[in-house]
Amino acid sequence: MTNFLRRVVTITASFLLMLRMRRLMPDYHDRLDIDTRLTSRGVIEIFRRALGFLYPQQRLLGVRLVLVTLIFTIGLCLPWFLKIVVDHGVMQMPIQNLDEMLYPFFMFPFLQAVATASPLDITLYTLIALALVFMLVGYSGNTALEANLAEGADVATQSENKVSSGMSSAHGLIGLIDLSVAIRLSQRITHHVRQVLFGNMSRLPLTTLQQQRSGDAIFRVMHDTPSIAGMCHALTVNPYTMVFSVSLNLWVLSMVYGNTAPELVWVGFTAVIITLILTSPLANWMRKASQASRSSGSATTNDLEEGLKNVATIQSLGGGQTEQEKFRDASKESFKQSLLLLLVRNVVLWIADNIHLLFQTLGFWIIFNGIIDGHLTLGDTPVILRMYSMLYETSMQFGQIWIEQQDNAAAARRVFFMMDHDSESSSMADITRSVPGIGAGIRFENVSFRYPDGREALSNISFSVNPGETIAIAGATGAGKSTLAYMIPKFIQPTSGRVFFDDTDITDFDITQLRNHAAYVFQEHQLLTDTIAANLRIAKPEASLDDMREACGQAGALDFIEAMPEGFDSWIGRGGGTLSVGQKQRLSIARAFLREASILILDEPTAALDPETEASLLKALDAEDNKKIVIVIAHRLSTIRHADRIVFLKDGRIIEQGTHEELLALQDGEYRRFVELANA
Fold first, then answer.
1. How many domains does the chain have?
2. Domain for residue 410, yes or no?
C-alpha cells in the first residue's frame, strides 16, 4: 500500500509539473534558435532526415540485421529444450510418434537422436544442448546485453553515453558481437553528424557567430548529435527485431498449438493499440520537456565556459560572487528541467507497466486454462510462457517507439537547425570563379552595412586601394573600421553597394580562393593550445623551419621564440596564455607574413609593441608593400603616419582621405582634431 501511495503521489506531481511547464516555457537567451516548436509532422520529417545518416553505414546495418536474425533463429529452440527436460526427463514420457507430439519440425532431429535414451540421459543431452545454445545467444529475446555506461539523470551525460551505447537481444558470443557492431554503428553515425554540424557551424557568417553562444554550440555538437544514432536504431533495427521476433514466435505457436496462438495475438495487438492511445497525448509534453532540458543544459555550459574564459577579468573586478550566483541559478534550472523530463518519462512508464499487468494477467489466464483443460502438458508451460512473454514485451516496445523518440526528436531538431542555418558555403554554393590576382587592386563602391539588429555600421563607403599601397584606416572607436576590413575577405557582405577585386565583384569569386589571397591579423589574438610551429602552420601547412624563421624575424618574434626551451616546438597555453600580449601579437603577425598573401590586413598591429619592435615591423611592411596591398587599422599615430594614404572614418562614413601631411593641413579637419587629442 505504501508503494502504491508513493506511486500515486509521484504521478500526480508529474502531471502538475507538466501543466506548469506547458503554461510557461523558460527563456534561455537563445538569439538564433528562437522558435523551438515541433509538431508531429515535423517529427516525422526529422525521422526521414535522420535515416539519411544511416545510408552510408548500410553495410554495418546489414551485419546487425543478420546477427539479429541469427539470435532469434538460434534462440527459438530454447523453450523446446526445456519442454523435453520436463516431459521426457522429469515426467519420463516416452518419445514416440513425433508427428502427433507438440513439437516444431526443427526439433525432430534432436528428438530422434535421444528417443531410445533413458530419461536421465535425455536430461543430460538436453542440458548439454542448452549450454551450447546459451554460449551462443544466452536466453535470447528475454534478456538484453548493454554497454552499461554509468550516467546521471541529466540530459548531458545520458546523451554523451549514447555515442558508445548499444544493446543486443542476446548474451553469449553472438550477443557480444552484436553489441560491438551496435556500438560501432552508433559511433559512426554520431561521428558523421558531428562532422557535418561542426563543418557548417565553422562556416557561419561572423554576424551569426557573434550571436551564437559558445556553450550552446558545444552542447549541440557533443550532446545533441547522439540522438540521431538513437533514432536510426529505433526506426530500423528495433522494428525489424520486433516484427521478426513476433512473426517467428507466432508462426511456431500457430504451427504447434493451432488455435491457441490467435488469442495471444489479439491480446498483444490490443496492448499495442491501448499503449499508443494512452501515451500519444504525452508526446507533445515529452518534446517540450526535452527541449527545455537541453536548452537549460546548454545555457549552463555557456555560463561555465564564459566564466572560465574570462576568469582574469572576473577576479580583477571582484565579480566572483556574482558569477557563482549566476552559474548556481543556471545549474539549478538545468536540474529542474532534467527532473521534469524524468517525470514525463515516468508517467509513460507507469502507463505501460499497468497495461503490462492487465494484459499479462489475461494472457496467463488463457495459457493456464488450456493446461487445466488437458490440451497442453506441463512441459508446454515454459514454451508458451516464454513465447508469450516475448510477444508481450515486443508489443509494448513497439507501442512505445513513438513516445520514446520524442526526446531524440527534440535534440535532433536542435542539430538540424544549425545544419540548415545559412553558412558561407551554402550561400556561395554555385560560385566557382577563381581569383586571378590583385591586378587592379580593391575598390569599394557605395558600400553600406547594417547588423541584424538594425545598427548601421557603414554608409556609402567609396574608395580604392592600388597594388603596392599601404592604407591606414583610422577613426574613433566604433567608427566602422574593422567592419570595413571584414568585407575584403568576405567575412561579412555589404547590405548595399559592391566591393571589387581586380575589377570583379567579390561576390562572383569562390570564397576559399579569395581568402587564399588575404591574410587577416585580428585585434583579438587567435591562438591555439598547441606548439608555436603548429600555430604558424595554420597559415601554411607545408612551411619549413626556415620559412617560419624568416616570417618570425620580420615580425620581431624570432628572439623570444628561440629563447624558449624547445623553440618552435614549445607549447603555449590556452589561447597563448603563456605568452605576453606583445608576444602573441608578434606571433599573429608572423603567421600572416608566412601566408604570403597578396593582401595583408592588420587590425591594431602595433598596439602592444614597444617602439623598437614597432619600428622593425614597419620596416618589414615597407619591404612588403611593393608586392602587395597592406591595410592597417590603427589608433597609434606612428603607425598611421607610416601609411601611404589615410582613410578617416566617423560614424560609418569616410570624412577625409589623404596623406598624414595633407590631412593635418586641414584647419578644421577631423583627422587633425584626432591627432591633437592623441598628442594632448
1. 2
2. yes
